[in-house]
Amino acid sequence: DAGITQSPRHKVTETGTPVTLRCHQTENHRYMYWYRQDPGHGLRLIHYSYGVKDTDKGEVSDGYSVSRSKTEDFLLTLESATSSQTSVYFCAIRAPGQGSTEAFFGQGTRLTVV
Amino acid sequence: AQRVTQPEKLLSVFKGAPVELKCNYSYSGSPELFWYVQYSRQRLQLLLRHISRESIKGFTADLNKGETSFHLKKPFAQEEDSAMYYCALEGGSEKLVFGKGTKLTVNP
Questions:
Q1: How does the average pLDDT of chain A come out, rounded?
Q2: Measured between beta carbons, which residues in chain B are less than 8 angstroms from residue A59?
Q3: A50 contacts on B by Cβ (under 8 Å)
Q4: Measured between alpha carbons, how far apart are the two ends of chain B, in Å?
Q5: Is there a contact between B12 and B108 (Cβ–Cβ < 8 Å)?
Q6: Residue from the list B49, B51, B94 with its beta carbon closest to the beta carbon of A31
Q7: Does B43 contact A1 at a Cβ distance shorter than 8 Å?
Q8: Distance in angstroms (rounded) separating the CA atoms of residues A86 and B13
Q9: pLDDT digit string (tens) for B65-108?
């Protein structure tokens, strides 16, 4: 497996609390992504990063923020968790290249907001 | 805007039968297209990409720019092909978006 780890793997939190998920890579890849996976919705892009301190919004960015202060870490923060944010969250990394470079995925974080 | 449509949520075939998973896209430029697969309890992984024109595990996919499609095909499905399949598109900004996925079940 590519050197990408997500933490925590499972989390239960209460509505209204802030939550931070971490994605860590050892591959020095430039691009990093956060997705959420929900039945019937597939994978939806939340935010992505194309370099340190360079991030952009995805399809479902409301209620989420990200930070990337160093190449290896990409943090996803739920500012005030809601039940609709209960999901499985996946991080992915990708190297730049002549297009069509492969994305490598983490094992996912299962978040439950009660 | 980039958009990927996979019209079938579920697809069920018998072993040895042909299978086709549909993918249509919307993008004004020249897209990079991929198929990713997620087997039970495994990470999402790349199956194939259009630029390579390769065949992986017997699967092929052809980019049809006229129909804006990138359907995944296999002539003879195997039970081990049962998985969740996602079509993905990357536009020029390195933004990688996925469709809703198709769950393929190959019955014995």
A1: 93
A2: 97
A3: 93-94
A4: 41
A5: no
A6: B94
A7: yes
A8: 32
A9: 899 999 999 999 999 999 999 999 988 778 889 999 999 999 99
